[in-house]
Recover the amino acids of this structure.
């Protein structure tokens, strides 16, 4: 049985949405980060960083939301959440799947903290560049790879939902609004929001 270790109001929403989108049977294991449950020795064996989310699947254990998305998409191809390794779209899928933790999330932190980092030093360039590039990609739509929804949309959609819709840390843009509306219309995202709300 797949077990998803999660906590409300955390990055684990991405994987909650993923699992609801996958259609796979899974067990949700509430890991209350407000009580330090993610720092127990048993949990640290699953995710040594002591963060949520984490996932176990038989003998496999991993943390990091994008890695969990990659794992589920590859381990369970019937979910149709990832292009096959032989599919030419696989390259762009991987790029966008990891664009969230590698570019969007650092850009959000840069905006939130107002830290000035030279674009030549920051691995993501600049927050403006990140959101300009993302906007151009999303304008083509309806999803990041075109017509087919993938786990990359889950990572990107989660980040934009957090940064644009919920906390208004990133200014709205027409392409973001249209993309978020498509994400919000997905029944799996709606189920995940209900679960997260308790």
């Amino acid at each position: 049985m797949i077990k998803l270790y999660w906590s409300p109001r955390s990055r684990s929403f991405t994987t909650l949405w993923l699992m609801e989108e996958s259609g796979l049977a899974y067990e949700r294991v509430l890991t209350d980060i407000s009580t330090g449950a993610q720092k127990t020795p048993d949990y640290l064996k699953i995710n040594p960083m002591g963060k949520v989310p984490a996932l176990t699947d038989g003998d496999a254990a991993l943390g990091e939301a994008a890695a969990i998305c990659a794992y589920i998409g590859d381990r369970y191809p019937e979910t149709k959440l990832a292009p096959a390794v032989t599919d030419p779209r696989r390259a762009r899928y991987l790029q966008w799947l990891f664009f969230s933790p590698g570019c969007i999330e650092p850009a959000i932190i840069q905006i939130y903290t107002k830290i000035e980092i030279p674009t030549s030093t920051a691995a993501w360039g600049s927050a403006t560049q990140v959101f300009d590039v993302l906007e151009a990609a999303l304008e083509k739509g309806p999803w990041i790879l075109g017509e087919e929804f993938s786990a990359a949309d889950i990572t990107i959609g989660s980040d934009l939902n957090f940064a644009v819709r919920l906390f208004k840390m990133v200014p709205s843009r027409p392409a973001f609004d249209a993309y978020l509306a498509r994400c919000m219309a997905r029944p799996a995202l709606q189920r995940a929001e209900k679960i997260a709300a308790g």
User: Anything to note?
Assistant: The first strand starts at residue 2 and ends at 6. The chain has two domains: 2-80+189-197, 88-186. The two ends are 22 Å apart (CA to CA).
